[in-house]
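Note to self: user wants both folds in one dump. Writing first protein now.
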Amino acid sequence: MLPRNLLLLAGILTLMSCQPNADLVVHNALVYTVNKDLDKVQAFAVKDGKFIDVGNNDILDKYKAKNVVDAQGLPIFPGLIDAHSHFLQLGLSLQQAQLEGTESFEAVLERVKDYATGKDLAVIYGRGWDQNDWKVKEFPTKEELDALFPETPVVLERIDGHAMLVNQKALDLAGIDGSTAVEGGTVVLKKGKPTGVLIDRPMDLVTQALPPFTKQQKAEALIAAQELCFKHGLTTVTDAGIDRSDIELIDSLQKTNALQMRVYAMIKNTKENLEYYLSNGIYTNDFLNVRSVKVYADGALGSRGAALLKPYADAPGHRGKMITDLDSLKRLAARIAKTKFQMNTHAIGDAANEAVLNAYTNEVRFLRDPRWRIEHAQVVAPKDFENFSKKIIPSVQPLHATSDMYWAKDRLGSKRESSAYAFAELLDNAGILTLGTDFPVEAVNPFHTFYAAVARKDLEGSPEDGYQAENKISRYNTLMGMTRWAAFANFEEDIKGTIEVGKFADFVILDRDIMEVAERRIPKTRVIATLINGKIVYSNRF
């Protein structure tokens, strides 16, 4: 008979040999699961890229893990989802002249000159200017660009992506003159001649006339965008309106592991894209989900391209323009309703939101679970709020409210402004609200989004009580909008958006608890690590 201590040792070894294997165990953490009960736990285990156990610190003793992380009390959240962004465009914009934050057109010109100096560029691109930030809040004109760059086309995109300033060389290549008229947009004229400012659809004439970005340039752009997104804790991004060729590039990069970001791709509303995808059906795998169509109902408020029911307060007689009219919206909605694809429509002005709700309502009543979305839902007539639901989901960007609040009243007037950026009212009616940044229109940082939603203040803490404080969102609802609800709006609630057994092990470790810290400290939140499938894709500590 073996001595008692040897029997005890043998029992321990037997017990250890029976421990199930795990690739990773994280313990001693403050884990916000965002499950249906909003449970907070201490630990979880991961195997083969998925959570296999979620609970208390005794998980540490239950598994034989290849890697063990003592989180030392740090907060952990599900991987953050940006429900509306432009992933490829972000990457391309990182390669261009950065015009955000310029306080005058002269400052724009200086940045463009600095960017172009010493470079042999076929086209000079820049983006991010906003005339609303300038002392003279008027659209610029092209004369200075013509003098600086007479032989090189220059394309400077406005911050919202719905207007651009181009020089004469670009206008000539695009065949644009004082007689050019394009449905769904405006060629801004002065004394019958183009000023260089194009709003919405005429921009396409310039884009089509210039040499396209190469596949290599786009691949580099996607990888650069990924690095920035991982740094900010994003594990899924939406690309709101891209072509088949770009979707297939993303897919190829993901399959070689060059791209590890999960992407929800909305196809651009073109004849070619619709014919291919609506005929071939949904395309989805662990990293890419293609099952929605992005449509533009109107333009942007900042460039007065948003379609309003009554004229702009600062431009009497002008109501903006529909990019896609009501009849076209209805025909497209009827076509998409016959498929498993989701219809996601950009609507800023109250006329555009009314038209989209009209087109949607005709179709979704016959669909069990369509989850069609209105992207932005920025200015909504009071009578139309009740038409939002889990069948017609509002997808909003809190940073737009705090970016636009200094001039929104100028555009809308105080009465109409009161039903703009009304996120709490949208949530009350729909029961769900998905949140994004619309980057590169706004900063990638999701904690700026979080702060804008809960505080309704800019990064300087203004206004003191918050912009339209009645539309603040609670911290839990804001978190839901960036995780669980965002996953639901993407038809992905069964595989991501919460920390639960069976779901992808996508999570983010933060340096502070955004659910509890003082409101003013939220924007300064830093990501310690971002993990996808339980593997580190970004870390400044581990």
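First done. Writing the second protein, which came from a different request thread.
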Amino acid sequence: MAALAVLIFLGACGSLWLDAKDGGDAAFWWPNGLILSALLLNRRNKWPVIFGIGYVTNVLAHLYMHDTVFLSLTLTACDMLEVAIASYPFAHITRDAVRFSRPRELARLCLVGGILGPAISAVFAVAIFQMQSPAPRNFGLHWFFSNTLGTIIVTPIVLSLLDGEVAALFRRNRLLELTGLLVLLYLLPLAIFRYTHLPIFFTVFPPLLLLVVRLGMGGGVVGVCGIAAFCIMVVAKGGGAVVHGFELSWQKQVFLVQVLLASAVLCVALVAVVLNERRLLEQAARKSEQLYRLLAENSRDIIVLTDLEHRREYLSPAVQWMMGWDPKELLGGTYQKNIVHPDDIPAMTATLEALKAGEPSKTLSYRCRKKDGEYIWMEANISLYCDRITGEPIGYVNVVRNISERKAAEEKLQDAYLALEALASVDALTGTANRRQFDESLSQEWRRAARTGSPLSLLLLDVDHFKLYNDFYGHLQGDNCLRQIARVALDLIQRPGDLVGRFGGEEFAIILPETSCEAAVGLAERIRSLVAEQGVVHAGSQHGLVTVSIGCSTINPEPYTNQNLLIEAADQALYEAKRNGRNRVVNAVESSGQTLNAE
């Protein structure tokens, strides 16, 4: 803090002394830049002390240079107001975060610290000066420019020198490069300001910018300091292009040198901003690339990039352990060539065309050939990827995983489902359709016959004296008997639409779509005969063998009628067959003596 007070006092005295020469054209105001630098280099809890030191030392400098007490106190207050305005945008930024090589911080310094703050303080300074005596000509304009130049020159330089940017140059293994660039830079101002009479000050900028490009903001600040040293030395001796080129007084030469330094600092800062932004973008791109490559190389899925013509541009290493292909072997090829199963190529083509037409992403299952020739099931999640600048699609991203195990499990599950469905519709004892399946099939065939106007026939079959058979031979033999009768019916019923079902107990029902009454009766008679020919002994039957009685009904269904009409007619015919001595076939028409029609 003591060193800060001494620097502020000396800077203020020097600026006030120059300000008193040649109408005040020579001076630029150092103290505000020094105070702002001190604020940015310290924590917020020290700011009140720094403001206090700045105010006291500025007042003392004004008094030392013979200003009145009123002007010393009030003009210093204007300077402190300017510093407060300039520091406000940085008040909530941590100390280590302030870098003028970043665009936001540089913009805040230039707009707030270099324009807004000096403009406001200039207005107050003119008003205060007018309260005591008429202000000097262009006093407000001179105040504004001198404070602007001081802030823009001093603050970035001090911050770089004291906050480690310059010191970092000497910790790198680039000392030889730094020395060579500085020698090149210093030879130019030496020649320009001492040995030439031509106003070619701009020639110092190319090596200065080269220094910034190679060494960053810190290198640029070192270069500006060297240029400033040469300028001050040459102007102090009264030589150089500034004198001979413009024939100016030494005070105006000092002012011109200050403008040159401010321009150099701004150029250094702007180039540093551009380079820093580029460096950050490169770091972000490099980090993203490393992250994506890490994910791609360690993913169990295959990641494929192709262009719009389906040529592969990238394959992740997973393709080698999953399919046996080296990624290089597949680069440049397309899915049509020996990779995708020929039967799945149309689906793949349709998927890619749908994506090109605007769909965001598609999932496709297909078979893919391994290097050994085996085909495995793969699932691909495919989407378009676009150019970041134009937004136009430039290719496809394909994330592929092996689903062979899942496909095998799905097939097993499907087989189990079909088996379960079959069990749910088949009578476990006889292998015929169960009652649920019979009801569904009869309803379906009834509706179809009503639409087409075709006849529908039904046979109801009952085992004669089956209870007595169970009593004589036991239930196991009874089960065998039912299975034999079911086998006779199943062997005889061959058409796809026909259905043999267990109607209940020892009764069976046979649905015969598009079958006339005569054909149904003929089929029933064949079943009755074949059962008798089995020769299964039945001591409880008057025939001595296992026989069946069959009721037959045929109806031409009408729309919106009930299929129970067909069942009731067949059941009535079956009752007549049993009543008339069993082991016979009775047609429902014969039993009722009339033609059946569903109305």
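Dump finished. Worth passing along: The domain at 300-408 is CATH 3.30.450.20 (Beta-Lactamase).
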